[in-house]
Specification:
The protein contains 14 helices and 14 strands. The chain is α/β, with parallel strands linked by helices and 334 residues long. It is globular.
């Protein structure tokens, strides 16, 4: 048995897990275990760099540094160099591997890790929001989700494995489809020269929607946080917060349909991120599904594509484990 270190590291927290990889047990039961049975969370601000945090993590687990690891990070990775935007951490992947004495170190984007997890999640880790009964298992899947930002990636099947296509779909332009949304965009264009999907579908986007709706209603906006807007909106304690979260759900449906069309995602739409699971009870009251299918002559095309929601907030650890195991020859050949 080998211990594999997997992680999902954002600007605030680093979530670490240990996966017990036992090739003989996997063969006996006919499937691979990608679940991290032991997990801990560390505050990134308490550490000077990635190497220090990984060493502290292993000390917390009471283990030596494992030979094989995969880190999912919130930041760009190019030419073997990784950068944690919100932490100002930069490192060479090969250099970090050698510094820690590892045999294998993969570093992938955190949303790519979430996307890669989808085929390996258990049934109870996904909730069906819309079932067409017509999804094509051999077609691409689009994975998207509002959180701190708006992440998006495509999963493309490839001879029994999956290729991840990272995208910057969250930075595509926000496309209003009714008068209210045109007024929201008009308000924002007075503050910035480009309004993106992420400006609307994110934690900050909830506040943006609230501010815009308040302005257009001639009401002074209060200094609400994203949590304030969602909490008050869900509890129906504030009319403008309620309208903001309902508008958020409407736009999410619209964008999900747009992305499904753009990527030919006949394999399905999967929504992740930390916000949507909290708003899922509000979707039936919103126009989420109506807006999802509102694609003119392509309404039938989109109507054939199911939508699922990830409800496991540690799904990126599953993706990291799956990526590590399926892309490390030393593990595949055990």
């Amino acid at each position: 048995m080998s211990l594999l270190l997997v992680a999902d590291i954002g600007g605030t927290n680093g979530r670490f897990g240990l996966v017990e990889f036992d090739a003989e047990k996997n063969r006996a039961r006919g499937k691979i275990n990608y679940t991290a049975e032991r997990q801990i969370t560390l505050k990134c601000a308490n550490y000077a760099d990635m190497a220090t945090m990984i060493k502290a993590c292993c000390t917390e687990f009471g283990i030596a540094i494992p030979d094989h690891a995969c880190l999912a990070i919130a930041g760009p990775i190019e030419n073997g160099q990784a950068a944690m935007t919100n932490l100002n951490w930069k490192f060479s992947i090969e250099g970090l591997r050698d510094q820690l004495g590892m045999k294998t170190l993969h570093v992938i984007n955190d949303f790519a890790s979430l996307a890669y997890a989808v085929p390996f999640l258990q049934e109870n880790e996904l909730v069906t929001l819309y079932d067409s009964n017509k999804s094509n298992p051999n077609a691409p899947i689009v994975v998207m989700g509002p959180g701190t930002g708006f992440g998006m990636a495509a999963l493309v099947p490839d001879n029994g494995n999956w290729n991840i296509i990272p995208t910057e779909g969250g930075h595509a332009s926000f496309a209003p489809t009714n008068e209210k949304e045109l007024d929201i965009k008009s308000f924002l264009l007075k503050e910035q020269n480009h309004v993106s999907v992420e400006n609307i579908l994110s934690g900050g986007g909830l506040v943006t929607l609230y501010r815009a709706l308040a302005h257009n209603a001639g009401v002074e906006a209060k200094a609400y946080t994203p949590a304030d807007v969602s909490t008050k909106g869900l509890a129906d304690e504030d009319d403008l917060c309620r309208e903001a979260v309902l508008t958020f759900c409407d736009v999410l449906g619209e964008v999900a349909g747009d992305k499904a069309l753009s990527l030919g995602a006949k394999g399905g739409v999967v929504i992740g991120g930390g916000i949507t699971p909290k708003l899922v009870g509000l979707l039936p009251e919103s126009h989420f599904l109506e807006r999802y299918k509102n694609k003119g002559p392509m309404a039938g095309y989109v109507s054939d594509i199911s939508i699922r929601l990830i409800v496991n907030d540690k799904a990126a650890l599953v993706g990291s484990a799956a990526w590590l195991i399926n892309n490390t020859p030393a593990l595949k050949n055990l």
